[in-house]
Amino acid sequence: MTVPRWVFAVAGLGAVFVLLPLVAMALRVNWTEFVPLISSESSVAALLLSLRTSLAATALCVVFGVPMALVLARTDFWGQKVLRSLVLLPLVLPPVVGGIALLYTFGRRGLLGQTFGLLGIEIAFSTTAVVIAQTFVALPFLVLSLEGALRTVGSRYEAVGATLGASPTTVLRRITLPLVLPAVLSGAVLSFARALGEFGATLTFAGSLQGTTRTLPLEIYLQRETDPDTAVALSLVLVVVAVVIVSLAHRTGEPSRRRARALS
Amino acid sequence: MTFSLDLHVADRDVSLHLDVAAGETVAILGPNGAGKSTLLGTIAGLVTPDSGRCELNGTVLFDLPGAGRGPRTWRAPHQRGVSLLAQEALLFPHLSVLDNVAFGPRSAGAPSGRARQIATHWLREVDAEQLAARRPAELSGGQAQRIAVARALASDPGLLLLDEPLAALDISVAPTVRRMLRRVLAGRSALIVTHDVLDAYTLADRVVIVEGGRIVDQGTPAEVFDRPRSAFAAGLAGLNLLTGVRRGTTLITADAAAPVANIPEPGVADGAPLSLAVRPGAVSVSIDPPADSQLSSVRAELIDLEPRGDFVRARSAVLAADVSPKEAAQLDAAVGSPVWFSFAAAAATLYPTVPSDRTTSS
Asked: What pLDDT does residue B299 have?
């Protein structure tokens, strides 16, 4: 298809809309003070906390998201469509609402919080709460991309594996997971990116305590009031990390396309 | 007997019984939609029938007595010892050829070294040892299907199921793969679904014709294709099939519209049901009655003339005849009116129309 010229014009406008704010921000960066700004104690603490919690959240997303995607893609039961919509709800839910929901689940007076409280475990306003909030918002990204990949691969290889004498667990380990590995990786990268940028649910459910729950986005929001230069510098750090992650996700997504071509 | 199957699918009106003896290869032929692939899927455990029972070497694969009539047994696919080879090779794309073939032994618990040994043995059996290190994406269709055969055999199945294994192959590779299949299937219990008479002749000890959810004929390939009992088998064998009853030297067909006069000695009593098979190539067509009184003949309306390469097929509701283009040109004006179809007695096979189970024991 030949793309009409006016489409280029509109597409260009859209691209400018996305890129211009980034450029505007980069222009405001105080380059001479850049390194001291991002290496202040609170900045480094926020950055390290963000990386730590996001990695933990990504691990949880993989642990729970892979089985969820398998159940959604490979089984058929009553109410499955409703369940899928509910599982994907955090994608469209305002993060603040997610944070409130988590507070009423794990908070001191929440549904499970009281039980945890009796065991001497306080979840709300702890680093654990940050991880929970990030997992909550990031999980659908992994489930969604992996479920799609599982449906694309289909179950014919799995059927062959079963007739060759492989148990369901062997089929999962030696056939299904290797076939969708690129999707697991790109889904994990997307989940990591979403966890890294998480703000609303974290603030509502975990609060903003330096070194404990104040992740990079929260630190940026806080500094914006008092020290715009630091806020801008940290924002740039976050943008760079995001760009690196997006390009990583693209690269890990590629082998699956190559494989799909080889199959067709 | 190593394998027996009773299958009933109510809403598709399928009801059939099938046995496979130890070391026997049975070919299943039938029109599209006869449920042949479903049959294989059921045996492999990938499709659940309404009711039925299936046993392999003394192990019950499934026993489904129908709703509310006793306990249901269903063995999972991986516990059946049944390998399914499909039209497409479906080699695992992320594993090397060797690891694909070693997959079955590995799943059965063999250590990696032993599994590779078994895999190498089967790769040698299908003349593909040199491909061991390749990835499936680097194989041609024929090579991939060879590997798929090796992979299916390496899992040492009690019964091997083949679902049109040559159908997707290039016409130039199919003969080699067919020869290889004949070699590895010898002495092995196998069920093969095919559309190809040549597959049935070269690979099968016994042929089963399935039509309308029932087994309509079975026997050795020669029995089924030389003396067909179903229009489908006759079509596959390229024969005209006429059925009716004998009245003296005449065959009265079921609709009685076109009696075949002057049939050779059929060897059945007057009034007995009789089948007659004759190749279209042995039938001549003439506008006037045949001069030679020795010929068997039938008068029927010439429906059309259909060019087929270097000959033309003249069709009527009763018989088809292959005539030369020159003869066809002379017949062109006669399309739509009655003509004479005739053939020499020696060219036809006459046999009693036997009731459904001519070879129940095999």
From this structure: 86
Write out chain A residues lying below 8 Å of B118, CB-based. none
Closest partner CB to B94 (pick from A165, A167, A178): A178
CATH code of residue B338: 2.40.50.100
In this prediction, what percent of chain B has a pLDDT beyond 70? 96
Contact of A83 with A71, CB cutoff 8 Å: no
In B287-345, beta strands by DSSP E:
296-301, 304-308, 311-315, 320-323, 338-343
Indicate whether B193 and B49 sit together in one domain. yes
What is the three-class DSSP state of B80? coil
Residue of B74, B88, B94 to mutate for A, most A C-beta atoms under 10 A: B94
* pLDDT averaged over every residue in chain B: 87
| Domain limit, last residue, from B226, B257, B274 | B226
Higher pLDDT, A263 or A18: A18
Q: Contact B155/A167, CB-based, under 8 Å?
A: no
The mean pLDDT of B133-138, rounded to a whole number, is 94
Q: H-helix or E-strand containing B262?
A: none
B134 in reach of chain A (CB within 8 A): no
H-only helix segments in chain A: 5-27, 34-38, 41-74, 80-87, 89-92, 95-106, 113-118, 127-153, 156-163, 168-171, 177-197, 200-206, 216-226, 228-263
Q: Which chain A residue has the Cα nearest residue B156?
A: A164
What is the number of domains present in chain A?
A: 1
Looking at the structure, do residues B165 and B302 belong to the same domain, yes or no?
no
Hunting for tokens 């050829």 — which residue is that?
A: B97
Clarify whether residues B313 and B166 are in a common domain: no
Structure tokens at A89: 């709800």
Helices (H), A119-164: 127-153, 156-163
**DSSP letter assigned to residue B289:** P
Paired tokens of B281? 């190539």
Q: Which residues pair with B313 in a beta bridge?
A: B306, B322
Residues B131 and B260 in one domain: no
Burial class (CB in 10 A: 0-12, 13-18, 19+), A12: exposed
Least CB-CB distance to B78: which of A167, A174, A263? A167
Distance between A156 CA and the closest CA of chain B, angstroms: 8
How far, in Å, CA of A66 to CA of A62, rounded?
6
Cβ–Cβ below 8 Å for B107 and A168: no
Look at chain B and report how many structural domains it folds into. 2
What length does chain B have?
Answer: 362
Q: Do residues B110 and B173 both lie within one domain?
A: yes
Whole-number pLDDT of residue A198 = 93
Residues B317, B184: one domain?
A: no
Q: Which domain holds residue B206?
A: 3-226
Could you give the 3-state DSSP secondary structure of residue B214?
strand
Q: What is the DSSP letter of A213?
A: T
3-state secondary structure A14-27: HHHHHHHHHHHHHH
B contacts of A170 (beta carbons < 8 Å): 78, 107
SS3 category, B165: coil
Give the number of other CB atoms < 10 A from CB of residue B43: 27
pTM for this predicted structure: 0.81
Three-state SS for B51? strand
The reported pLDDT for the residue numbered A156 is 92
Co-location of B282 and B181 in the same domain = no
